[in-house]
Amino acid sequence: MDKKEEIHRNICSLLRRIADAAMQCGRDPEEVQLVAVGKTQPIEHIRHAIDAGAPIVGENYIQEAREKFDALVHMGIPWHFIGHLQSNKAKHAVRMFELIHSVDTLKLAGELDKQARKAGKIQPILLQVNISGEPTKSGIDEQQCLELVGNILPLENLQLQGLMTMPAFFDAPEKARPYFTALRMLRDRLNQQLGIALNHLSMGMTGDFEVAIEEGATLVRIGTALYGGRQ
């Protein structure tokens, strides 16, 4: 089997598994979208994924994404930024990405707002939360979320749409469930306390996305199960 056939088979399998996981917990499969993570993958592999029905491309690094985006933007699907974003790359992120999953400081939010205003764009974002409390992980501490959300909401060129997290790596998907539950509960508290509607939960990857869907994920970020190992 060549790489194109492998990617096509994997996309079909993943879309089916996502739909099955949603239906098994009483959710509408349309509520959950696959973000096909192209980190370190060549342009041709991402093209195959789009051809096979990947609904969203996800990228982790601005420099790597720029070449891919410019080569494939004509294919007409949304691109999401899911990696750690430095403020000095905000201009490029606003140009390329329909949704930025990884906002975790007011400084970054302010710069994205500024660049979106220059571009005449309302930039949708997610707030990245370090639910597991790991010092090596990006994201804001759960206890600081209310204050940061309150400071982001007045920024006129940003639209906060939800939360994102990356729990610790576990060899058993069930071990990740408490972190997914915690993110959903945090989202619900923010909605209630601030009278807002944060709809998206970006959580779940190759090893645990079905559990994440059971806990409310709307965006699952999958690379390994789609492309195999990193290039």
Structure description:
The chain is of the alpha/beta class and 231 residues long. It has one domain (3-227): Alanine racemase (TIM Barrel, Alpha-Beta Barrel), CATH 3.20.20. Helices cover 43% and strands 16% of the residues. The chain is built from nine helices and eight strands. The chain has helices at residues 3-24, 43-51, 62-72, 90-96, 106-119, 145-152, 177-194, 209-214, 224-227; strands at 33-37, 56-59, 79-81, 99-103, 123-128, 158-164, 200-202, 219-222. The chain has an eight-stranded parallel β-sheet with strand order 7-6-5-4-3-2-1-8. Helix 6 (145-152) links the parallel strand 5 (123-128) and strand 6. Helix 1 packs across helix 2 (43-51) and helix 4 (90-96) crosses helix 5. The mean pLDDT is 95.
List the helices and strands and how they pair.
Layout: H1 3-24, E1 33-37, H2 43-51, E2 56-59, H3 62-72, E3 79-81, H4 90-96, E4 99-103, H5 106-119, E5 123-128, H6 145-152, E6 158-164, H7 177-194, E7 200-202, H8 209-214, E8 219-222, H9 224-227
Parallel strand pairs: 1-2, 1-8, 2-3, 3-4, 4-5, 5-6, 6-7
Helix pairs in contact: 1-2, 4-5
What are the main properties of this structure?
231 residues; alpha/beta; TIM Barrel; globular
Structural class: alpha/beta
Q: Count the domains.
A: 1
Q: What CATH architecture label applies?
A: Alpha-Beta Barrel
**How large is the share of residues in beta strands?**
15-25%
Count of DSSP helices? Answer: 9
Helicity range = 40-55%
Order of strands, main sheet, comes to: 7-6-5-4-3-2-1-8
CATH topology: TIM Barrel
CATH class: Alpha Beta
In CATH, what is the homologous superfamily? Alanine racemase
The average pLDDT is 95
CA-based gyration radius = 17 Å
Q: Low-confidence runs (pLDDT<50, min 5 residues)?
A: none
